[in-house]
Amino acid sequence: LEFRRVLFRSRIRMVLVWLSIVLGAFTSLAYYWQPDWLTAFTIWPAWFWFSAGVALALAGYSRPTRKLMLSAALLWGGVGYLLRAEAVAVLRSRAWPVSKWEDARRQGAGLRVVTLNCAGGSLAAAQEAGAYHADIVLLQEVPTRGRLTPLIPQLTVRSAESALGMDTAVIAAGAVEAIPVNSPLLQLARVRLFTGQSLVVGSVRLPPPSIRTDLWSPACWQSHAADRLDRRQALHEVIKSLASVSAETPLILAGDFNAPAGDAVFRLLRPRLSDAFMSAGVGWGGTAHNDFPIMRIDQIWLSDHFQVTALVTDRKSTRLNSSHLVISYAVFC
What we know:
Layout: H1 2-33, H2 39-42, H3 46-59, H4 66-82, H5 84-91, H6 99-106, E1 110-117, H7 123-128, E2 136-140, H8 145-148, E3 161-164, E4 168-172, E5 174-179, E6 186-193, E7 198-205, H9 218-242, E8 251-256, E9 274-275, H10 276-280, E10 281-282, E11 298-302, E12 306-313, E13 325-332
Parallel strand pairs: 1-2, 7-8, 10-12
Antiparallel strand pairs: 1-13, 2-4, 3-4, 5-6, 6-7, 8-11, 9-11, 12-13
């Protein structure tokens, strides 16, 4: 009887390691290709499956499974490579303000940008942006024009102008000229800051994703695939609007993309723009949701005219029903 128990436990451990290997192979392929029909799987951050796979492998560790563990380690090492930017950001410790940014600021080049989802038009959420004394504030799910307009002078480092859209807004400490666009998802503006810097800034909010988690249901997979198509089409419209901006013009596109970092839709933004967090993120970058921010759906994308010194997600406030708050500190070149 004891022999049977030992044999049973040995087989269970073998099964767990094999499950880890299969999950690792599937995860690697899924995140590399990211086909639309697998969106229900890849909508979850890769670290979610990484944690599950490593836990399975560790649970199945034994002397007979050591060789299989090597295969599992290689597979999950590949998945871990996809997570390197997030891992480095968590480990990175960077005091603020950094001397490089301060030097640039004294020369009129340091630039501070805040992007914030106002949680369904919350004026209290919008007011929080003012605490960061930013040069540029980008809002999504904005309060009504009548409620927001009196607040605008308080939101930037000094008196500001704005370009207000249906659902998004660009507010800057300087002159702001709205650029006409065909997409209601984007507010685009030409900005000349009080420091003399000229650039184009876009505040964007893409359609929200499916929140279905019943992966055992075919309808869940169909729903997520349809959502990916909607966001890709929406981002196509945004990119068409950006076509009027010359490649020589510094460009910032930021806001609530409603897609996790690394999602296939962001391939449309490259190579013209890059995700600022990938080069200078500090700490945990998740922005959704406030209680359990597992996804970095709020992002700042920049042209190569900028050198980013730090980008952090700030969740000091607990009174909002959203943690869509990202603060970027960039050096304008």
